Amino acid sequence: MEPGFAASEIDTSRPHPARMYDAYLGGRDNYPVDREAVREILRLYPETRQVALANRAFLQRAVRFLAAEAGIGQFLDIGTGIPSAGNVHEVAGQVAPDARVVYVDNDPIVHVHASALLTGTDATGIVLADLRDPGAILAHPGLRAMIDFSRPVALLLLAILHFVTEEEDPAGIVATLLDALPDGSYLALSHATADFHPPGAAAQATAVYKNATAPFVPRPFKQVAAFFDGLELVEPGLVQAPLWRPDGKRPRPRDLEKIGIYAGLGRKALGR
Ligand SMILES: C[S@@+](CC[C@H](N)C(=O)[O-])C[C@H]1O[C@@H](n2cnc3c(N)ncnc32)[C@H](O)[C@@H]1O
Fold it and tell me: Closest ligand 1 atom to the C-alpha of 81?
């Protein structure tokens, strides 16, 4: 859907969030500069790998819920990440074989990997675009060819909004995207927080991301909850990711210690 890109576009001199996330998840699509930043984060927050895994598990439970229980057949996944186990189209496809998925990311390396993975499928598309320009995403011909805006869509913003600063107006971005979707659409969101750490901890993580291609902006509960303004929250609401409709046993309090990621799902009802 997009022309190719030059290898020189891949910046190996600065850590990239997509490649750092890949490293947390044990992937191989990362460079020394990413691994060095990950080592520093893990030194400060040894639980970060669990946080990434908890987020990935939420993605899978949320997509299964959307495809199987909410009857959603179209997914717009912004901030896709480097493909890993249990990608959105694979999870949705298990219960809704006709599900359409458009992946959007601003990192060329994600684009390359996702394009390779998706070759030959009509049900999935990949768009190289930036969340901070939601108008360009919505107008993108690749997206418009895949998504029927008269039918409900699940907008997935998973572990991406914490790379958008207040000055870049994350609430306005979410509102612009939701306004384009019909009633019955959903927002699935996960977002890093420092609420489960001592004061000052967030500043250290933010400092590690200082040289990265995107800043790191963890937010408190109230600010994350505000992204769902005007939506009906699906039970159990906005919670730490492992607490969102766990598959098996409810996590024990000690499994939740320092798991600084909120997750939730909201439905756009009539009249938003
Ligand atoms: C931590 S990964 C999350 C991947 C996946 N959504 C998940 O939850 O497993 C964040 C992804 O968001 C992408 N990203 C960060 N800022 C972005 C922006 N402004 N526009 C588009 N993608 C962005 C990164 O390139 C990366 O692939």
Answer: 27
E-only strand ranges, 41-176 = 74-78, 100-105, 124-128, 154-158
Instruction: Residue 220: count other Cβ atoms within 10 Å of its Cβ.
Output: 12
Half-sphere exposure of residue 201: CA atoms within 13 angstroms, side-chain side: 20
> What is the C-alpha to C-alpha distance for residues 90 and 99, in angstroms, rounded to an integer?
10
Report d(CA 44, CA 103) in Å as an integer: 32
Give 44-96 as a DSSP string.
H-TTHHHHHHHHHHHHHHHHHIIIIIS---EEEEES--S--SS-HHHHHHHH-
Report the candidate in 145, 139, 107, 106 with the shortest Cα–Cα distance to residue 123.
145
Residue 1 has what pLDDT? 37
CA of 214 to the centre of ligand 1 (A): 10
Compute CA 248 distance to the chain's CA centroid, rounded to the nearest angstrom. 23
Going along the chain from its start, the domains and CATH numbers come out as 13-246 (3.40.50.150)
How many residues appear in the chain? Answer: 272
113: nearest Cα among 213, 30, 50: 30
How is residue 212 written in tokens?
A: 């990265």
pLDDT in tens, 107-160: 988 988 888 877 667 789 999 999 999 999 999 999 999 999 999 999 999 999
Q: If you average pLDDT over residues 88-97, what whole number do you get?
A: 92
For ligand 1, which residues put their CB under 6 angstroms from it?
17-18, 21, 55-56, 59, 79-81, 105-107, 110, 130-132, 158-160, 163, 214
Q: How far apart are CA 64 and CA 149, in angstroms?
A: 21
The one-letter code for the residue type at 257 is: E
